[in-house]
Amino acid sequence: MKICHKCKEEKGTDKFHKNKHASDGLNFWCKECRSLCAKDQIKSEARRERVRKHMDEPGVRHRYNVRNLRYRHNDPKKYAQRVKEYSERNPEKVEARRLLRNAIRRGEVKRTVCCVCSHPKVDAHHEDYSRPYDVLWLCKIHHSRIHADRIAALRK
User: Of 2, 3, 12, 116, which one has the fewest beta carbons inside 10 Å?
Assistant: First the structure.
């Protein structure tokens, strides 16, 4: 039995994560308290801003891209299975992206700058996948903010 330093409740040792630096080999906070704290940190705007700044540092985004490529090449069957499952779950999204990609390649649709900050590197954001050519052009930061705001709104 051990007392959690956060909630002050006495719990079994199986309710604490391991910590090799602690004298008893267990964390000070129970798993439940650590989980709640981690969720609060993830939701905080300050943390999201730190992550954005970190991703803009030279070479960081490249390391993440290399990690993703390694995943795709180390286990191509698993990657192909995940792509297939996504395509089956979201056929309208996949089709809209394909149509837009082909229209850009043919020169029928031109990429513009971010409609919020005028950054030249942009992603297409579909408000409605049934209209594949009606997109907002947004940089990575503003595109991720739109999705984060929508997810937060759904959770309320």
Answer: 12
